[in-house]
Write a structure and sequence with these properties.
Length: 453
Amino acid sequence: MATTISAFTFLFAFFFIQAVHGAAIGVNYGRLANNLPPPPQVARFLAQTTTITGVKLFDADPFVLQAFAGTNLSINLAIPNELIPKLTNLSFAQHWVHVTILPHIQVTNITRILVGNEILSTANKSLIRSLVPAMQNIHTALTGVELHHRIKVSSTHSLSILSTSTPPSTGQFRKGYDTQMIKPMLSFLRATNSTFMVNAYPFFGCNADTLDYALFRGNTRVFDENTGLVYMNMLDGQLDAVYSAMKLLGFTDIEIVISETGWPSVGDESEAGVDIESARDYNAMLLQHVTSGVGTPLMPNRTFETYIFSLFNEDLKPGPRSERNFGLFHPDMTPVYDIGILRSEGELPMPVRSTVPPEVPDQGQMKQWCIPKLNADIKALQENIDFVCSQGLDCNPILPGGICFSPDITRAHAAYAMNEYFQAFGRNSYNCDFGQTGEITTTDPSYGSCKFN
Ligand SMILES: *[C@@H]1O[C@H](CO)[C@@H](O)[C@H](O)[C@H]1NC(C)=O
Ligand SMILES: *[C@@H]1O[C@H](CO)[C@@H](O)[C@H](O)[C@H]1NC(C)=O
Ligand SMILES: *[C@@H]1O[C@H](CO)[C@@H](O)[C@H](O)[C@H]1NC(C)=O
Ligand SMILES: *[C@@H]1O[C@H](CO)[C@@H](O)[C@H](O)[C@H]1NC(C)=O
Ligand SMILES: *[C@@H]1O[C@H](CO)[C@@H](O)[C@H](O)[C@H]1NC(C)=O
Ligand SMILES: *[C@@H]1O[C@H](CO)[C@@H](O)[C@H](O)[C@H]1NC(C)=O
């Protein structure tokens, strides 16, 4: 009989794991920090010591994509908002896919491209108008290289796309945007069997009175008079508000994915409900809830693919203290708190010391440039050039005939390109990291008529 019991136990465990995997729990891997471990170490850590199955990135950094090679983790990469107008040009989108996606596709499990983040919050009309055409072009480009079945295209939205959200049944998209942008996007998502992605944060939606409701502490109930449904937690309310808004436009068949959610563990004194216990309760209950198969009152009996924000505490994020403390892990990869995603205590790796150099101290008015490290590998530098020039920055000066073409050596061209990137995307150390091949200097690298920005 012992074998029967163990077979039963095995089956039970098997189905449990399947259910959890079916819900695909992932993390947002943000890198607005100067003390994080190198990406290959992070990739190994996630793949070997956690039960996480997906990773969401905020860019398409080739060094990070390379780091996840061979791990099976599904990678959601992002195209920054700034690039969206350029992607309305199909040739550019094809070029981008060739340079950014194709080099990695054999070894890194790229499953989704996210075009822009919270685009409606920018209130930039031209960006908003360009979003769906850009998504369409990326999809067309993927189709051209037969990757459209493997890589889905979507975009992530904040809940401010809704004009009303309580009670959940009254959820609707903001007027104007609903028909101009959301509806064409939903049509695109349906046609390509993609998903609608929302950043849903009960943390930002609650106050002192609704804290327990936000934290899944089941002593608060909210009744929706229109539907007669009872809500036990705020996340369900937020998801059902999105569902109701989609229903108004006739799109209930598109899967909703939680692209970001989380809770900070440390905050300023004025920030209520911010402590380790709350953060752990929220994220642990969240995992249990989205993988349970219970669903929400309006979307019963289903799981939700969910990406916790965030993998690490990120010390360079601006704003209140809580912004820098959403991480599940400290930069040395020790857990801030435990929500049961570690495979087993015994397998925990030794904490590592970051090899990333400390943040360059505030230089006041002193200007900074980004150049290759002296020992940087030429092949890596060529990859830096290809990457930067695929990001819509002007690389004409280092092309034949350009003012910085001579001397025609990779290191010089890389210096120009890497610095363009550093100046365009913000003078932060992580924008000059380039897989540890770049370094910041306060000496102007310009020479002759080749002027560095
Ligand atoms: C890639 O990720 C998807 C989604 O998690 C998964 O279903 C698939 O098995 C992965 N592929 C490989 C080759 O690991
Ligand atoms: C990745 O997935 C493939 C196919 O599903 C499997 O053969 C391989 O062992 C997996 N690799 C790892 C590191 O899990
Ligand atoms: C809108 O975004 C584009 C692309 O980032 C930018 O060039 C433009 O200046 C922005 N417009 C406004 C009004 O901010
Ligand atoms: C479209 O993109 C291609 C490739 O990057 C570029 O050569 C071309 O000039 C762009 N066209 C327009 C109208 O911007
Ligand atoms: C759509 O994608 C889901 C997985 O995300 C898959 O199960 C389903 O078969 C796909 N449908 C079509 C028509 O491709
Ligand atoms: C959800 O599952 C419950 C219990 O299995 C079942 O009674 C109910 O009919 C299901 N609801 C839907 C909409 O499938």
